[in-house]
Write a structure and sequence with these properties.
With 329 residues, the protein is an alpha/beta fold. The protein has two domains: 98 residues, SH3 type barrels (Roll); 207 residues, Rossmann fold, CATH 3.40.50. It is built from eight helices and 13 strands.
Length: 329
């Protein structure tokens, strides 16, 4: 969109009592005078700041949306939700320096997002690590990443990086973000240290909500063995809006007295020799379909109580992705 040198307004149809008001409003909204204004729907959460024209020191309050360095055009979003595009050359030197810094940061972020990456963190207040796998093309704190699905993954041994590694093909093909949480570890009983483990899991979950961009309506929980059981508990205790479960050799432990997220897509992924997990499939499946109105599907592979091969995990994730209509990314 090319910036226009001015914007005309026809005041002849505005009665005298409102004319001065609208002249004042339009003058303040279009204070820089070198713009085209259009309605935009992109979610821009940048902080409002002052942008000033060098010629007469007139300013507007707006957040930075984009800067086209080659065209020397900057797009700003006003407080009323309108987007304006101006020639950057008309701004004061301080504003142009901010745009130069924005360009440098954007280029660095694009270079970083060009390839997938795995990072580990220790959220404040947590006793365990969080491992985040971002697929290629993912940009932190960018609107394009806010529509991505996310999978929170648990391991029975408290080492979730392994299951994150196994599920990387899911992220690479479907665009999911993977978040491994080490807070869960099997104990001698289902109830032992339950509150402590859920508290630590909640800290990691809330940290991810604040620091990782994803769609809160596309949350999937997953885990191996006890980590699979913990996925179901998370779909009750952390959020009632979970979209799906990737249960690798896990089951619900007959804990059918809780309120779980409704209408989930639940993938039961078990080795064909994992008798315990397979024996729970129909029992858990009936409960989920009847009480939680879930869609349930079993995926089997040759083997016992182990993590499924990557291709089987991907098949299950594709089913969840399609069933819940996550869409392309």
């Amino acid at each position: 969109m090319k910036p226009t040198p001015y914007l005309r307004a026809d005041y002849s149809r505005i009665d005298s009592s409102k004319q001065r008001y609208w002249i004042s409003r339009i003058s303040s909204v279009l204070a820089l005078g070198y713009l085209s204004a259009t309605s935009v729907f992109a979610d821009d959460t940048a902080k409002l700041s002052s942008w000033t024209r060098a010629e007469d020191q007139k300013s507007i309050q707006a957040s930075l949306v984009a800067f086209d360095h080659e065209a020397d055009e900057v797009s700003l979003k006003l407080a009323n939700g309108k987007e304006v595009t101006i020639n950057a050359s008309v701004l004061i030197a301080e504003d142009q320096e901010r745009l130069a810094a924005f360009t440098k940061a954007s280029e660095a972020q694009k270079a970083l997002s060009a390839k997938s990456r795995m990072d580990s963190y220790e959220p404040e207040g947590a006793k365990h690590k969080v491992h985040v796998y971002r697929p290629a093309g993912y940009i932190d704190n960018h609107p394009s990443s806010e529509s991505r699905p996310v999978a929170f993954l648990f391991s029975a041994g408290g080492k979730s990086a392994k299951i994150v590694n196994r599920c990387m093909s899911i992220a690479d093909e479907l665009g999911w973000v993977l978040v491994g949480i080490d807070a869960y570890k099997n104990t001698s009983s289902l109830t032992e240290l339950y509150d402590e483990r859920m508290r630590d899991t909640k800290i990691a979950f809330e940290w991810a909500q604040q620091n990782i961009s994803f769609d809160p309506e596309k949350i999937v929980f997953g885990g191996l063995s006890g980590g699979g059981w913990w996925s179901f508990q998370s779909a009750s205790d952390l959020t009632r809006d979970a979209a799906g479960i990737l249960s690798f050799g896990g089951w619900m432990g007959k804990m059918h007295d809780k309120n779980y997220s409704k209408k989930m897509a639940v993938a039961q992924i078990n080795g064909d020799k994992d008798k315990a997990a397979i024996s729970a499939e129909s029992y858990d499946g009936r409960f989920l379909e009847k009480k939680a109105r879930a869609k349930v599907k079993a995926f089997h592979f040759p083997g016992g109580h182990v993590l499924a091969p990557a291709e089987v995990a991907l098949e299950a994730a594709r089913w969840i992705h399609e069933t819940k209509e996550f869409g392309d990314h």
